[in-house]
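Re: flavin-adenine dinucleotide structure - here you go.
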Amino acid sequence: METPNRIRRRTFFKTCGLAFVGMGLPEKSIATKNIDVTNALQVDVNRLSSQELPCIKKQVDYVVVGGGVAGVCSAITAARAGLKVVLIQDRPVLGGNASSEVRLWVLGATSHMGNNNRWAREGGVLDELIVENIYRNKEGNPIFFDALLLEKVWAEPNISLLLNTAVYAIEMDGPNQVGKVIAFCSQNSTQYEIGASYFCDTSGDGIVGFLAGAAFRVGAEKGDVFGEKFILPDDYGKLLGHSMYFYSKDAGHPVKYVAPAFALKDIEEKVPRYKDIQRDSSGCRLWWLEWGDDLDHVFESEKIKDELWRVVYGVWDYIKNSGKFKDVENLTLEWVSTIPGKRESRRFEGDYVLKQQDIIEQKNFEDAIAYGGWAIDLHPGAGVYSNYPGCTQYHSKGVYTIPYRSIYSRNITNLFFGGRLISVSHIAFGSTRVIATGTLCAQAAALAAVICKKNNISPKEVYSKGFVKKLQMDLMQTGHYIPCIKLENEDDLALKGKIFLSDFLRLSELPEDGTWRSLKNDIGMLLPLGKGKIPEFTFTVKAEEATTLDFEFYVSSRLGNYTPDICLSKKNYSIEKGVSSVRVKYGVSLKEEQYGLVVVKKKENVSVAQSNVRLTGVLSLFQGRIQKKDDKYGVDEIPFYTPERRPGGKNLAIKIAPALDRFGLSQLQTGVFRPANGNVNAWVAPLYCKTARLECRWNAVQVIKRIILWFDLDYDHAMESCLMGHPESIMPFCIQHYKIKDDSGHIIYEVTENHQAKNEICLHNGIRTNSLTVELYQTSPHIPISLFGMQVFK
Ligand SMILES: Cc1cc2nc3c(=O)[nH]c(=O)nc-3n(C[C@H](O)[C@H](O)[C@H](O)COP(=O)(O)OP(=O)(O)OC[C@H]3O[C@@H](n4cnc5c(N)ncnc54)[C@H](O)[C@@H]3O)c2cc1C
């Protein structure tokens, strides 16, 4: 029976202690009507009488508050695992800071490929979305990314999505448990009361955590709190600021610009970095149009936004009207953000607070569920007005792990955190805050909630009752990567069968079929090497006159890292004028299988031959800057060797004797679906194979209902979601065409246009066979066929 229910705002305020902001609601009380809904959160307008606002109530398993990328991926991950989910987003579009409203690119450990974290792009639902975005939208139009997120959320029958709906209150079920969230949609004048067993706060500012009384931290800690050393001066500021972006375009005809009266004047006087303003600046490249100072980054956020509007319109006035820039007559402002990109506000406390040392020392947590790899990147609070550089950044030597204990509240029993809310110190936050890293945590929260529901336990008990290994395995099975963890799935029939490969690569040569590359800087080949004596390497060089050439051989001090911080050998060879071959004998042995960097040192007037062949698990790297060791700040010296983006970054032509035997069967069933831990973790066929076959045979007939193939989607490529374009819409290593056949040679599945890493094939009625053959077709004559893994399930 429907009974009009008058809900007094004061009731909510008592529960949450929050002022009601910006809803345009009547001052005193709201008359609402309770409506029971089953699936869609829709109002039957015929059931409303006048003077009433509807109030929709629903109980689900998992409520995600905040539809940024973290919230979206958490909701999808949970929904696919069977939870009934409500995703609540206060804005008209999904994506948060990565949406077309703010236009940040999604990044994480790959960090624009500007560090030593190789093959570090985040996996799981996030990677599916990012890969799909590049496939549809390699030019990086942020509007298409909005639509993609919406499509993916709408595709999940287990998710009810509420857009334009802000959570502003909660009701507790007891002192430490969230019972329901209360939200209002300004567009349909409807109130929602959504109860759940578990909540995930991915709202950026932590509305649920704040209202529930979850312990949180704000601003920079003093050094003695966590024993951290990267402590900046007091006048540096305590929080990273908000930023605001604009896009400009050439209108094709002169366009005048009259700045609004509030636009900032005297840019050269007020903005110390005014020389960084470029005619073509737009979007993420304006990250330093930042401000926040010592204001409250939640409650004074509108004030910060207003100041940033002054800055944005003032900067544009400077570009258009100062006379300091050429060719600006036809330029016009195409878009200015209406909400600021928020970097930092609250950080909630879990049972573990991640700190600087964990990042720099790359601590391996046994309860690791995610990882990061962005630099510890702090910004002065005064931002655009500061005399400090726009940011201070320090990298670790490789990726670091994030423990499960950092993604749930230490004092609220059913509350998870994702995105930038996780339990970290301000300094660690400098790294974990980036979208892809926070999203991994939110994906982990989703599958932890699945375990909680199944076992009727709290988030804390997932750790204390020994469910973390299960969580790690569940995450890995979705394609989510966790360093040093291998997927073990005893239901995988492929592990019980016998695998036959048509052939596999013994890497003896990357042919000399490319252009010459001048040795203007050191160039290295990152190669997966075996235990024992390393091979001899032959390069082809071209010198304008007879000279000598230096070669070095590096490994990393830690297995799984790619920072070349141990030089095992240096060699010097004389070379003749003209083209010649140099055979480099390092005479070095390795104690374990690991990646090594074979470096040709820079030399004027000398070039080295390149190859057009690209290959899974092998990369050319180019020497970049060096991060200086700084004991005061507790950071290491790091030489950077980074890849170039395609079409650059060709491999060097190289002969390897004896050939590298690291691409065969033993690399196929490692439980890791990307190069990692010194292994390629892929079967790679010889280059000449246009087709390659993998057969899995069992002693008895199997009934097979599900097959998963894991392809190489180039986890080294940073897939910025907007602004920055990409050379291809499908990663060149990806197998696009394959067939799967049963024991009678009958094709049970064929795809001709695959562009995703994880291909999950569901055979609803199951097939009976005692073998499966996967036939893979080469996509490019310059790239050998490869496969990271095949799993088969009943
Ligand atoms: C200028 C700038 C540059 C940055 N550079 C990068 C970069 O290059 N790469 C990168 O990966 N990261 C970058 N970051 C960091 C990154 O943008 C954030 O840390 C990241 O967006 C955090 O993700 P999130 O999902 O936690 O939050 P958000 O993306 O902010 O998403 C939170 C969502 O919750 C919604 N929400 C808030 N309150 C409520 C409520 N009460 N009810 C319902 N919904 C609510 C918000 O509208 C928002 O959509 C940058 C940040 C800024 C500001």
